[in-house]
Design a protein that fits this description.
316 residues, mainly beta, Beta-galactosidase, Chain A, domain 5, 6-stranded antiparallel beta sheet, 26 strands, globular
Length: 316
């Protein structure tokens, strides 16, 4: 099977997009829309892992400061320097942060080398964020570089936000060390449900989080966080054909994983989930008791790998 890389310029809902593909996977990114990943497909099985509200994948531009609920709600985006809207250091940080709703600059020279490299400068916070996306075999590589261009140390939250369509035979696998999810938000769960720590994967009757089951209520959701992880990886695998989505990343500076499961509570969408590597156990920069500080003028980097595979091909 050839690993030859293809590069294509495509258009999605009138917006220029770039596609990288090989015999294993294809990825499409729209730089103008927050460098959103609008498609990530397993070429061998045909499965599209990005959530689309409908088959037509209608894209449109948002204004800075819009609520994320008013977005196209398509695919994978970046939340930075906060996830939820909050006030911080005299700034009113928007819902899902400053970078998802604005254009990112595309590096055409990197594109010629088979890399989708995009950069964004925050409007309020003194940060510049670069992300480079490349593919090799059945893996999507994401490399980040963050630069504090200000004159003071600055705090930030970052979370990858991949909205994924899950199926009834999919199972969520977290590292064996995970026993508890620290829950920050719920909708439609029983009133007697625990308010904070939920046992993983079965916090109480009818809730099987590894099966994306949130009880009998067809309008429920939960957002929780793992503790600090030693093994930074998570997988969604099909029990029907063994195909899987696995995300792995470096523990420094992002030792946590956010887990979001939605069964109708958000926008009426069913069967949506997100696995969110992050540097904090909260969605609010203003609530973070020990936010990560990046010194003035300093840079930091981190990486993630997404693997689209088939379980039978893993050498256990």
């Amino acid at each position: 099977m050839t690993h030859e890389l293809s590069r294509n310029r495509v258009t999605r809902s009138g917006f220029p997009a770039r596609r990288l593909s090989n015999a294993f996977l294809s990825v499409e990114i729209v730089p103008e829309l927050g460098a959103r990943i609008v498609s990530l497909k397993n070429v061998r099985t045909g499965r599209e892992w990005c959530w689309h509200p409908d088959e037509s994948m209608q894209l449109f531009a948002n204004d800075y400061g819009d609520s994320f609920a008013e977005s196209p709600n398509v695919g994978f985006d970046e939340c930075f320097p906060s996830i939820e809207a909050c006030d911080w250091q005299g700034r009113r940080l928007p819902c899902h942060g400053e970078v998802w709703s604005v254009p990112w600059e595309l590096d055409e020279q990197a594109w010629e080398r088979g890399i989708i490299s995009t950069t964004v400068t925050c409007r309020q916070s003194p940060f510049e964020l670069n992300r480079q996306v490349s593919i090799r075999g059945n893996q999507l590589q994401l490399d980040y570089l963050l630069h504090n261009k200000g004159e003071q140390p600055e705090a930030y939250l970052w979370a990858f936000h991949p909205m994924m369509r899950v199926k009834s035979d999919d199972r969520l696998e977290l590292p064996e060390e995970v026993r508890i999810l620290q829950v920050e938000g719920t909708r439609g769960v029983p009133e007697n449900a625990p308010k904070s720590d939920w046992a993983w994967p079965s916090p109480f009757a009818g809730f099987e989080l590894d099966r994306f089951e949130l009880g009998a209520n067809e309008c429920a959701s939960v957002k929780g966080f793992t503790g600090k992880l030693q093994t930074c990886s998570a997988r969604i695998a099909s029990q029907a054909n063994g195909e899987y989505f696995e995300i792995s990343w470096e523990a420094e500076p992002n030792p946590f994983l956010g887990v979001w499961i939605n069964r109708g509570a958000y926008r009426g969408f069913q069967h949506v989930a997100a696995l969110e590597p992050t540097n904090a156990q909260t969605d609010f920069l203003s609530k973070h008791h020990m936010p990560r500080l990046l010194p003035a003028g300093a840079q930091c980097s981190w990486s993630m790998t997404i693997t689209l595979g088939i379980l039978s091909e893993i050498n256990f």
